[in-house]
């Protein structure tokens, strides 16, 4: 790696961590909460807004139903949190919904869950960042024209922070999370207190009217509107499962700490969601999908953005949109919404690592980077989320339609798998108290499975034509891709099983040295080939230019080389094809022989010098690697420019002496 690139990498990521320091990155509960629960906690900032947006389609009269829909969402959130507490206790290895479904419902169900979770994590990044930018624009409307650029910048910042490691990113994200919780709780307390005192806060949009897109909704049409509003409000449940996927990152006792963290997350999320919904009704917030449907809107409805629900409530409670607390809450909301994507940046790489270990994703996703984070998974997530944000213009409303279908797919299959798990546990349990505990857990998961299945059907029906069909397509595609990857790895493993035939020695070894010019690299390649003592040794050159070839032959004869020089004719000035054909002929005459091709190569010290050298050798090596019974050996010759690229001396890392690491790893000069 060039020195400038290495310096930049160290600046962004920090010094690398040793593998034996992995235990030092485990998380206490106070730090795990913002890392794994920032998504469900931040979802309360827009879940109420999504309910109101859908109800506004029918007009102001239907907004009175928002509290009942909010209550249904809160009940569902409570049930799901209780259900996943059982998952944490039963499966502490960190596989979460994927492990539960795979073990209890089969590998096919597990892959469906994995596909749904990956879609969920990708959408979490896109929606969270887009929603955070919405709140920034609510405070500074002039930034609206830079919406997409802001989104992409924040995705890059999140990627860089997570590449530094889970614990370090958690420290950076903990303060904004707790500031948001404190700000929302203060807003709820002051707002409800003013309402009780008879001075209820009034939103800036309280005087607006909403032009309904559908008039006189009754019967099935009304039911469909309510179900669609409920499904949009269920965005408050996104990310609930992240703690069950991250149990290995907790300090011991892992399961107990993870369960307590999940309880704290559930209680906090329900209180904040309920409080924001109540204040939205008290302050008479008005919001619509199409700004021009708001009668009385101040500004140009075609270009000026609406304020978010939480920003309108904050302005009403804290005394206007120029108050210090308004800006504080907007900043905290924007930060936690953007940092909520951190839940996905921790969950996606962990899930991808488990899938890679099971051979359903490329093995590179199982490898930890310099900072003991799953770097490849983090980068992949950032790239895919960035593409989605760009494709949907950074619109939260458009992105959120793709969001929760994957969430409830994994919820439903996970809870169904847990019911089967408890059924098996009951067969072996004999203690009365243990059986009662298992039966209670089974009841919780059964209720969770039924409720989430119902919501899954509702979400699929109500959001299908609004973009959810893309998720319906994406999950089966991911399933097929993962099956194909697993089939490939299985075939490769079977093909590579050792057998007696592979241990047979070759009859003869034919060494071939490629020579284009008589110089030091050619001398070294021939000397190295001779040192291996092959049965035959031949130097070959390809006649691309007659003058150069005759000059090489003359030099060869002058030095009276004992090694024959064979000239391969190439009327079309190709190099690769004649060499490959010559090697094939050698193999064809004696299939049990091995041909070893030695290729002299320049090693350069500057990146741009690679463009000037080694192109022919790269193409030739790439072609010869596909020939059975052919070995390719590169013989490097270091040019003077490589002297400045000597391997840097590795200094002992801090703490090595304390850990007893005394092996000499290099010295500084």
Specify the helix fraction band. Answer: 55-70%
Choose one word for the global shape.
Answer: elongated
Determine the oligomeric state from the structure: single chain
**What kind of sheet is the major sheet?**
5 strands, parallel
Number of helical segments with 4 or more residues: 23
Determine the N-to-C terminus distance.
Answer: 20 Å
SSE pattern, N- to C-terminal:
HHHHHHHEHHHEHHHHHHHHEHEHEHEHEH
Structural class: alpha/beta
What number is the mean pLDDT?
Answer: 81
Query: How do the strands line up in the largest sheet?
Result: 5-4-3-6-7
**Would you identify the regions where 5 or more consecutive residues have pLDDT less than 50?**
1-5, 18-24, 647-669
Number of strands: 7
Give the percentage of residues in beta strands.
Answer: 5-15%
What are the main properties of this structure?
single chain, 669 residues, alpha/beta, two-stranded antiparallel sheet, 23 helices, 61% helix, disordered N terminus
Describe the protein in words.
Helix 6 crosses helix 13. Helix 19 links the parallel strand 3 (509-514) and strand 4. Helix content is 61%, strand content 6%. The chain has 669 residues and is an alpha/beta fold. It is elongated, with a radius of gyration of 32 Å.
Describe this structure in a few short sentences.
The chain has 669 residues and is α/β, with parallel strands linked by helices.
Topology:
Layout: H1 3-13, H2 29-55, H3 66-90, H4 96-105, H5 107-139, H6 147-163, H7 166-196, E1 209-210, H8 219-233, H9 242-245, H10 254-282, E2 294-295, H11 309-318, H12 324-339, H13 341-357, H14 375-391, H15 396-400, H16 404-428, H17 432-463, H18 468-495, E3 509-514, H19 520-531, E4 536-543, H20 546-558, E5 565-569, H21 576-589, E6 594-603, H22 615-624, E7 630-638, H23 656-659
Helix pairs in contact: 2-7, 2-8, 2-10, 2-12, 2-13, 3-8, 3-10, 3-16, 3-17, 4-5, 4-16, 5-6, 5-12, 5-13, 5-14, 5-16, 5-18, 6-13, 6-14, 7-10, 7-11, 7-12, 8-17, 11-12, 13-14, 16-17
């Amino acid at each position: 790696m060039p020195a400038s690139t290495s310096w930049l990498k160290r600046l962004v990521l920090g010094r690398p961590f040793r593998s034996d320091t992995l235990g030092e990155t485990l998380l206490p509960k106070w730090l795990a909460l913002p890392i794994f629960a920032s998504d469900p906690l931040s979802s309360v900032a827009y879940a109420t807004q999504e309910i109101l947006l859908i109800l506004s389609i029918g007009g102001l009269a239907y907004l009175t139903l928002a509290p009942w829909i909010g209550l249904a969402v809160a009940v569902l959130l409570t049930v799901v949190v209780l259900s996943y507490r059982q998952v944490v206790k039963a499966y502490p290895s960190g596989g979460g919904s994927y492990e539960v479904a795979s073990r209890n419902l089969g590998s096919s169900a597990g892959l469906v869950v994995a596909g749904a979770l990956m879609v969920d994590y990708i959408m979490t990044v896109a929606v969270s960042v887009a929603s955070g930018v919405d709140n920034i624009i609510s405070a500074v409307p002039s930034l609206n024209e830079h919406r997409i650029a802001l989104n992409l910048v924040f995705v890059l910042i999140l990627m860089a922070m997570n590449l530094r490691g889970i614990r370090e990113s958690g420290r950076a994200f903990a303060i904004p999370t707790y500031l948001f919780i404190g700000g929302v709780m203060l807003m709820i307390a002051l707002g409800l207190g003013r309402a009780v005192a008879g001075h209820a806060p009034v939103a800036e949009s309280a005087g607006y009217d909403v032009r309904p897109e559908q008039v006189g909704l009754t019967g099935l049409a009304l039911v469909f509107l309510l179900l669609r509003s409920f499904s949009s409000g269920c965005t408050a449940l996104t990310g609930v499962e992240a703690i069950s996927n991250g149990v290995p990152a907790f300090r011991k006792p892992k399961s107990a700490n993870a369960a307590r963290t999940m309880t704290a997350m559930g209680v906090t999320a329900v209180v904040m969601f309920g409080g924001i919904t109540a204040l939205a009704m008290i302050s008479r917030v008005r919001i619509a999908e199409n700004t021009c449907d708001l009668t009385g809107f101040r500004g140009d409805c075609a270009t000026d953005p609406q304020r978010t629900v939480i920003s309108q409530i904050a302005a009403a409670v804290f005394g206007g949109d120029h108050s210090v607390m308004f800006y504080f809450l907007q900043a905290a909301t924007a930060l936690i919404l953007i940092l909520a994507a951190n839940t996905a940046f921790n969950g996606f790489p962990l899930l991808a690592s488990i899938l890679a270990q099971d051979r359903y994703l490329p093995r590179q996703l199982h490898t930890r980077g310099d900072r003991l984070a799953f770097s490849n998974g983090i980068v992949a997530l950032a790239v895919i989320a960035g593409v989605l944000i760009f494709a949907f213009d950074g619109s939260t409303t458009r992105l959120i339609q793709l969001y929760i279908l994957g969430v409830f797919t994994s919820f439903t299959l996970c809870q169904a798998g847990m019911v089967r798990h408890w059924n098996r546990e009951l067969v072996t349990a004999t203690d009365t108290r243990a059986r009662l505990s298992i039966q209670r857990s089974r009841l919780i998961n059964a209720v969770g499975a039924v409720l989430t299945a119902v919501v899954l059907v509702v979400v699929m029906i109500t959001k299908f034509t609004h973009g959810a069909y893309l998720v319906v397509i994406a999950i089966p595609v991911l399933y097929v891709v993962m099956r194909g990857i697993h089939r490939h790895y299985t075939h490769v493993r079977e093909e590579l099983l050792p057998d007696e035939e592979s241990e047979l020695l070759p009859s003869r070894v034919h060494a071939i040295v490629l020579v284009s010019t008589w110089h030091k690299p050619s001398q070294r390649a021939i000397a190295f080939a001779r040192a291996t003592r092959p049965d035959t040794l031949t130097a070959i050159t390809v006649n691309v230019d007659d003058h150069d070839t005759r000059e090489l032959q003359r030099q060869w004869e002058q030095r009276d080389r004992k090694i024959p020089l064979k000239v391969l004719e190439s009327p079309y000035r190709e190099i690769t094809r004649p060499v490959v054909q010559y090697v094939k002929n050698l193999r064809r005459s004696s299939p049990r022989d091995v041909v070893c091709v030695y290729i002299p190569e320049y090693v350069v010290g500057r990146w741009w010098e690679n463009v000037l050298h080694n192109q022919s050798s790269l193409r030739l090596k790439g072609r010869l690697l596909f020939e059975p019974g052919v070995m390719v050996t590169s013989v490097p010759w270091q040019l003077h420019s490589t002297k400045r690229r000597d391997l840097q001396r590795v200094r002992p890392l801090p703490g090595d002496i304390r850990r007893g690491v005394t092996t000499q790893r290099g010295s500084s000069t």
